[in-house]
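Exercise 7. Given the encoded structure of a 383-residue chain, write a plausible sequence.
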């Protein structure tokens, strides 16, 4: 009688296998370095060359900006001594002038209040998923402009002495000019882009001529035209203020460039989006507001922010028409005989470069965050 083969024992796992971390070269800092800095021979060579350049320049910069720097001094005599580094004492002494220029010192609290209110409303409006952003937009675009004007310009009825725009200048004027240009250029660019695609020949012709004429000349020409030619087209009693003229010129200039950026987003949108919106019975205004523009603007976020950054830096050109912006105050302050010196002037321009870099880099990082939130690059956010 044959014996049956023994039945093999079967082991059934009742617990899940432990989750092991991915290999270091697949996920983590080493993987990031390999993918971004050492992905190939050319990338490795560029990384090593850049690292060598940084190692060569960084010690000297640290010594000039920090170690040998002059942090406190009554005048520029110490900063003119051989071997002296950056003269941060000059920035400290002239900081009030950099911020407010010739604005009366007893009234600078009005500038501080206006800047603080604007920063608070802008943060509320731009912060992702902030509550009641509609109210923030209403306050920022409707209530804030007249309030800021009353604070900065003054109103005798409110007990605020009038300060002419001839005395305005410094950081707050740079922020004012750039903010007005940015706020006006986006809706202006949208209207011009839609007008350029309009089926009405007159509207399309006007928008095309305006965009091409403005984009065909440098910003300095637009500023000179706004400053010297604009008063010739209005009655003498309605001549715009000397600060309002470059504001109008910058807003028009930026709107023309913004129009082409937005038109690129409109053309990149598939035709089916338009057809689908019309198929469900949406009017032209509803189609643009609910379907087309949200997608088109999300596509061109990098281009929009790039235009904003360029506009923020180009505001320094208002100095050519007599507006004392931040860079102009830095250039004027270095002419003080008590603070004359090569390292002193260099320190002032380094401070100005840091100011513009912080704002431009902040706008760039904010746009990157918005892109990640909207997943405009086709990637899905991790929960």
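Solution.
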């Amino acid at each position: 009688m044959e014996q049956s083969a023994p039945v093999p024992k079967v082991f059934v796992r009742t617990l899940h296998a432990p989750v092991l971390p991915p290999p270091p070269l697949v996920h983590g800092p080493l993987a990031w370095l390999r993918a971004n800095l050492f992905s190939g021979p050319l990338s490795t060579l560029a990384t090593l060359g850049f690292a060598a350049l940084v190692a060569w320049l960084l010690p000297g910069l640290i010594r000039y900006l920090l170690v040998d720097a002059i942090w406190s001094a009554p005048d520029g005599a110490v900063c003119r001594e051989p071997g002296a580094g950056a003269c941060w004492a000059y920035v400290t002494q002239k900081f009030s002038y950099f911020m407010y220029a010739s604005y009366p010192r007893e009234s600078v609290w009005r500038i501080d209040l206006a800047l603080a209110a604007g920063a608070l409303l802008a943060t509320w409006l731009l912060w992702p998923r902030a509550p009641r952003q509609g109210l923030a937009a209403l306050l920022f675009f409707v209530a804030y402009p007249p309030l800021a004007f009353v604070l900065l310009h003054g109103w005798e009825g409110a007990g605020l002495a009038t300060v002419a725009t001839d005395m305005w200048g410094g950081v707050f004027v740079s922020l004012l000019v750039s903010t007005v240009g940015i706020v006006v250029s986006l809706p202006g660019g949208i209207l011009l882009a839609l007008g350029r695609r309009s089926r009405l020949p007159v509207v399309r012709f006007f928008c095309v001529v305006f965009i091409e004429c403005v984009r065909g000349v440098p910003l300095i020409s637009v500023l000179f035209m706004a400053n010297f030619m604009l008063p010739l087209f209005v009655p003498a009693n309605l001549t715009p203020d000397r600060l309002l003229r470059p504001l109008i010129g910058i807003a028009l200039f930026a709107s023309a460039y913004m129009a082409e950026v937005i038109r690129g987003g409109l053309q990149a949108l598939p035709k089916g989006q338009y057809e689908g919106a019309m198929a469900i019975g949406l009017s032209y205004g509803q189609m643009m507001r609910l379907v087309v523009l949200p997608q088109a603007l999300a596509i061109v976020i990098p281009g929009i922010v790039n235009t904003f950054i360029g506009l923020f830096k180009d505001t320094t050109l208002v100095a050519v028409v007599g507006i004392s912006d931040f860079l102009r105050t830095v250039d004027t302050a270095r002419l003080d005989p008590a603070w004359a010196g090569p390292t002193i002037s260099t320190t002032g321009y380094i401070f100005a470069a840091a100011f513009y870099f912080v704002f431009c880099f902040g706008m760039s990082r904010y746009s990157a965050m918005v892109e990640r939130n909207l997943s405009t690059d086709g990637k899905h956010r991790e929960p």
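Remark. The beta strands are 169-170, 324-325. Students should compare their own answers with the one above.
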